[in-house]
Amino acid sequence: MYLLFVLVINDFMKNIFFLIIGIVVVISSCKPTERTGEPKKLTEKFVLKKMTDNRIDFNWFSAKIKTNYQSEAESFTATLQVKIEKDKQIWISGQKFGFEGVRMLIDQDSIRIINRLQKTYQVTDFSYIQKEFNLPANFEAVQNFLLGNPLTMSNDAIYRLKSDTANIVLDGLEGNISFSYALNRLSYKLEKFTLEDKSANRKVVTRQLDYQTTEKQGDFSFLREIDLQSEETSNISVVMTYSRVDFDEAKTMSFTVPSSYKRL
Length: 264
Prior knowledge:
single chain, alpha+beta, outer membrane lipoprotein receptor (LolB), chain A, globular
């Protein structure tokens, strides 16, 4: 049973990377744009500024994330323990049935992975992911994905504002990439984000639900639903339920590799 568990966890962590990379791939070269000024009427510039203002700014973050994963090949549930020191380190422990299978420590330059079952550890970087999966990724995108911060496009993006009964919707186009933000009409909180790269046949839809007020950061989405379609990953659906969310309390990020573990 333990062997099966760790094998599943290993696949799970790899597939979580697939999911994150799938989101990052079409925007990793785009830099966030800062916009200021509030016009008297609703405009694209005003909505973009509201999204920027709503981004979570923090020093430390930690959470427990129950994750339900479904793909064409498999379906299972696992738990992630996540700790983030802003712009410096991301610590992730992948667990199932209370046992840790994989521990990861990510910084701007490296990705370190401990495999508990195989008693191995690995040190690599984001260029390894690009080589392994032929997809780019970066630290900032992983951090924003876990926090639920909106992914913003560059100055070259063209925006079109529209409104429906439920949301303010901001559609956009940048080269071959089309995207859409659906925001709450009152709070301007992001409720749905769609990103599609038709030239690469990739599409991701994220829904941020169950906003609850936190003591230090205001409203935070405790429920995420992600659907990813791509040739690299086929169809993946993930539901992430957050609990024990805490901001700005320093955490230890233990990452000790036993001397008996073999480096890959």
